[in-house]
Design goal:
Structural class: alpha+beta
Number of strands: 24
Strand content: 15-25%
Radius of gyration: 28 Å
Shape: globular
Number of helices: 17
Largest sheet: 7 strands, antiparallel
């Protein structure tokens, strides 16, 4: 009897896991003979009426009880918390639907896209927390400029003293916050909410918000917000989604005079632009930016050119003869972001990618437009909410970009040391027994050359001329996983340690028995798995507070997934031909981030990815199969600067 009870619990957990994973598209068919409530034939000692009544209660086949049991499992909180949330309903149209990545630098986003992002309940709450931590740390060390005596006279809300984060603050400080890529204002609202929380009860911070946005429609919307006190009927920005107690329309009314809207592409700011931005703030004279906030991240971290944009802002402050938009110790939010990659098995996604070959290059061309073509379709990365898919291994770090000042880098080294102490700056902690091989360097080297150096704390490399070089190369090795990455699920969502543990318990002691090695050289096809590409995700450290050892971050990498956040789906890199991965073999992924042209949109510059994969026998190190390099020289896909 105990064995039956244990088996039923295991079956129940298995069924619930299936519902959690694919319940939104799952159709259940119950068939076969009933073992517990079989139909009662009329020839038994029961009357025909009793038999008919019993059969009606249990269905014509007697399987109705099984269907009712499945419906009961579907209503369990463990399942409904996944399938019946607002986020889940919003995702349904996007399941396994390939989308071309956004090109926000070259194209202006539509309002529908802004509205989708602004509904995210997690992202802007974490941004507000990061800004608040940065303000508290700056006040503790008196990083910000203090109001002069004349300026204090102009501050009617000035109090003689206050307490912020347990530290006595006897002055009022001026803080300039630059929002790069302000969109329709959610980051402005997050900054105002953070300032309002700092100033609760007494004024400690005098803010100035500089919002830089290149989209004319978004600029018009921002100016309307200022005129209407931060709330427009039907506008999602007026709903305070995900913000704390300070994120109300009253913040806009109180600080409207402190907000400046700049209609410019941040990469094209001139000295005259910077001078105009920093002037005209009477009666209080604010200086260059103390904090720079941006949300330029893409599904793969850097694929929407966040490094190029933020470094472009830094370059406007690097000339000694021109006014500086940023202070030398300006805090960047985010401070650092890392992209991740992992192999994925999904015939559905691979078929969808192949089908793109028959779609027109431009959606506006209609059915008669020039088709995408098979080569271009299979050499283009796609944004996708993976569903009918399985990530076969824990993701590994790929590229890292840091926007810490020299002072912050030294502070980070002091607090982090060799990485074995404080976990504050450790973005991504992988499950036990998972190893990662990451190589960063100059991908202008020949393909496959792995002799490159790594700078873990300063990944923004420069060339001989002193300009930024954001080209990268990474080689990732994924040893054979007997559980086939069970805890990773479809590659989108939080890593499930319980499922991973259960899978590890049912794996045979010697899984290689399902696949043999012929003559010690060639892996046979018994067992193993087929991969159809790899998924790209990211983990971003918005801000790390060394004094409190606290951090605010956002992530779509399964191992550190920010639950409830839906602003980003993973980036799917397809393989032209699927690769079979036998038992006891390693998947090796090589990926390059390359660029040409300048950092300005007038130079016609491009950024693109190239990738390839190979399967290596673990026993002999022989390459069993491999793919060609996809998208060489950006022939099929690139991001325009």
């Amino acid at each position: 009897q105990p064995i039956v009870i244990i088996a039923s619990i295991v079956l129940q957990m298995l069924l619930m896991e299936v519902l959690r994973r694919v319940g939104r598209t799952l159709r259940v068919l119950v068939e076969g003979g009933a073992r517990h409530n079989p139909p009662i034939p009329a020839s038994t000692d029961k009357t025909a009426a009793e038999a008919a009544q019993s059969n009606t209660a249990n269905g014509a086949t007697g399987c109705l009880a099984y269907l009712q049991y499945l419906r009961h499992l579907r209503q369990r909180p463990e399942v409904t918390n996944i399938l019946d949330t607002e986020e889940s309903h919003l995702e349904v149209p996007y399941l396994d639907t390939l989308q071309s990545p956004l090109q926000p630098l070259a194209d202006d986003l539509e309002f529908q896209t802004y509205e989708t992002f602004e509904r995210d309940p997690v992202k802007y709450r974490n941004y507000q927390a990061a800004i608040e931590l940065a303000l508290k740390d700056g006040l503790m060390v008196k990083k910000f400029d203090e109001l002069t005596q004349n300026e204090k006279m102009m501050s009617t809300q000035h109090n003689a003293s206050g307490m912020v984060g347990g530290v006595s603050v006897g002055s009022v400080y001026k803080v300039t916050i630059v929002v790069v890529g302000a969109g329709r204002g959610p980051l402005i609202r997050a900054a105002l909410a953070a300032v309002a929380d700092i100033n609760r009860g007494y004024e400690v911070v005098k803010p100035r918000i500089i919002a830089i946005e290149k989209n004319p429609s978004a600029v018009l919307f921002l100016n309307s917000l200022l005129r209407h006190g931060g709330s427009i009927s039907g506008g999602c920005v007026g709903n305070d989604v995900g913000l704390g107690s300070g994120g109300t329309a009253s913040c806009w009314e109180e600080y409207a005079h402190c907000i400046s809207i700049v209609d410019r592409d941040v990469r094209d700011l001139t000295s005259a632009d910077v001078k105009a931005i920093l002037s005209g703030t009477q009666p209080i004279q604010f200086g260059a930016a103390d904090i720079m906030v941006s949300e330029l991240l893409g599904s793969f971290g850097d694929n929407e050119l966040s490094p190029e944009c933020l470094q472009g802002v830094a370059l406007t402050s690097s000339s000694p003869d021109s006014p500086c938009l940023l202070k030398h110790n300006c805090i960047s939010i985010p401070q650092r972001y890392v992209s991740f990659a992992a192999p994925i098995s999904s015939m559905r996604l691979h078929s969808e990618a192949r089908a793109q070959a028959y779609s027109p290059i431009s959606p506006t061309d209609g059915p008669g437009g020039q088709p995408f073509g098979a080569l271009k379709a299979m050499e283009t990365p796609y944004v996708v909410r993976a569903h009918a898919a399985a990530q076969t291994a824990v993701e590994q770090p790929c590229f890292e970009f840091s926007h810490l000042s020299r002072e912050q880098e030294m502070l980070a080294r002091h607090h982090v040391g060799d990485g074995t102490g404080s976990s504050g700056l450790q973005l991504h902690q992988q499950p036990d027994s998972v190893t990662s091989t990451m190589i960063e360097g100059n991908p202008q080297q020949q393909h496959g050359n792995t002799n490159s150096s790594t700078s873990p704390l300063a990944s923004s490399m420069t060339d001989a001329g002193g300009s930024y070089n954001n080209d990268r190369y990474a080689r990732l090795e994924f040893p054979f996983d007997p559980t086939y990455g069970a805890g990773c699920g479809c590659g989108y969502g939080k890593f499930d340690a319980a499922v991973a543990h259960m899978a590890s318990q049912v794996v045979p002691e010697n899984d290689s028995a399902t696949g043999t090695v012929d003559g010690g050289d060639t892996a046979m096809t018994g067992g193993g798995i087929t991969i159809h590409g790899f998924l790209g995700t990211f983990d971003a450290l918005l801000y790390y507070s060394p004094p409190d050892d606290r951090k605010s971050s956002i992530s779509i990498a399964p191992s550190t997934f920010s639950e409830g956040m839906f602003s980003w789906f993973p980036l799917y890199f397809p393989l032209r031909e699927p690769l079979h991965v036998p038992v006891d073999s390693t998947v090796v992924i090589s990926i390059w981030r390359r660029s040409d042209g300048g950092s300005s949109r007038t130079c016609g510059g491009r950024v693109w990815y190239e990738w390839s994969a190979e399967v290596v026998c673990q026993q002999t190190s022989r390459i069993l199969s491999s793919t060609p390099i996809h998208n060489p020289n950006g022939r099929s896909y690139h991001v325009r600067l």
